[in-house]
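User: My instructor asked us to take a sequence, write out its structure as tokens, and then describe one feature of it. I'm not sure where to start. Here is the sequence I was given:
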Amino acid sequence: MRSCAVDALAAQFAPTTLDELEHTSALRERVESKYIVTWETFEALAGELLDSHRVLEIDDLRVFTYETLYFDSGSLKTYRDHVMQRRKRFRIRSRRYVESDSYVFEVKLKGPRGQTIKHRLERVPELHRAIDPRAEEFLDKVLIDQYHRGVIEPLEPTLNTKYRRLTLASAEGSEKLTCDFDLRLSATSGRAAGLAGNHVMIESKSERGGLPADRVLRSMGARPVSCSKYCVGIAMTHHAVKTNGFRRLMSRYFIAEPEPAAALDLPVWSGNDPQGSVGALRERCR
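Assistant: Let's start with the prediction itself. The structure tokens for your sequence are:
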């Protein structure tokens, strides 16, 4: 999607600062609804929100680039838990905010009432691709506090995502919209896919749900979709995994890139080879 179109749309909104956003709309525990809409629908939505929402602005920028690396076990346990809709499921990722070159390690979990709970730890660039001892301790503490159990299987990098985002926040309350463009998903095998051109992924986030933006989107014919970037990315780039619940979404909104000649699926750890490829990766992460 053309950068100038996104920048021009963002320029129409009054600005808000990161401090203001963190104070009113950090929403570490929240209800989320996701939509995938055409650019034309997004433009119409933005027009409806001009008077009620502000755009995040940092150092004169309003559109930001995110690079995220997800971690999973060799058997893709966190992916499988999401596909099976297990109540105690989570995702593990290291995120880079490109323009500021800052990094965080994050754990996203499902709470007892279905809400999303996010925990984060600031980190240095050198550790972006690793589960270092400090991140491992943080992860174990979060999972034990929330689910009364830590990580069982070794973890390794599995999927990269990259996209551009603008964030809109309500001027009146703790609710916000993240709007993602040019999403690209790439596995460590080399396989890659992306959100189809002219589409925007929108996520509404609030304490209780039912934002004005949700009502506007529904009036335009948009409906919420179950769309985890991680799960769709794994489903699009791994041939041997189950894709239950994602097939319609994938065929309608995502496009696979031509497959590299040497693309290979990630090894699946059976639990019988702790010193094999997965074990080696684990040691390097330490």
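For the description part of your assignment, you could build on this observation: The chain has nine helices and twelve strands. Try explaining in your own words what that tells you about the chain.
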